[in-house]
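Posting for a labmate who doesn't have an account.
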Amino acid sequence: MNSRSLPARLPAPLALIGGNEDRLTPGPVLRELVATCRAARADAAPPRIVVLSTASGEPELLWSQYEPAFRALGATPSWLDPRDRAAAGAAAALDALRDADLLFLTGGDQERLVDVLADTPMQALIHERHAAGELAVAGTSAGASALGAHMPVGDLNEQFAGPAQPLHRALGLMPALVVDQHFAQRKRHARLLQLVSLDPRRTGVGIDEDTALIVRPDVDLRVVGAGAVTVVDGSRMTDRREPGDIVAFEHLGLTLLPAGTTLRFEDPPAPPHLRRLLRTLASAASLRG
């Protein structure tokens, strides 16, 4: 068989976590994440996980929680904490990522995370190894929002009054999506609707706490944990704003995926609207942009 006939390797798994996942037990979100990473390995060696805590203002505290949690699950964790763009291009940091099976982005401030990583050798290496099927990527809370095309930042208005907010670029590992987190707990439905209204080409994904959306491109998506994933599809939406700050969205798609949901590409009986959703959230084409 010549090289032209070899099938292209799919991108590695991706996981969006809504924050506050159980890392003391550790709970089902981290267990399923490590199991997915282990299943993607070609051998039985422990998965090598790099915990990147750049988003956090308390990186030592987070490392003290994630290190024992990942070890208890049979993985080998290591810690990266670049605080500026120069550190994100350091040879030692890039070497650590070249050896990793999973990059785990912690919570904190997604704006700080993107400011440090965007357009650096580290971001380029993450994209390259992920697209080649070599590096799984997971983000929790701020780390989840940073994986989309755009992201909420700061005190973005929870409602629709006032001037439109600017869109803030994210890292683009999932360029078809805009991601919000702590979703039901912090009542961020209006915020996600606003983000989708600013760029209806992107699908909005809101993830509850202690809940993960785990995607294996062109294979399946799963929702695990304690809550649900809310998906907002504005691709057919009309946006009408009337006098008196009245906002009317028409033809807006809204889907709730509770924990335990699994959608597979190989399941033809799935209803057409769920197959469209699966293609949006988990097709390799949408992950490559």
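Reply:
Got it, the structure tokens are right above this. The first helix runs from residue 28 to 40.
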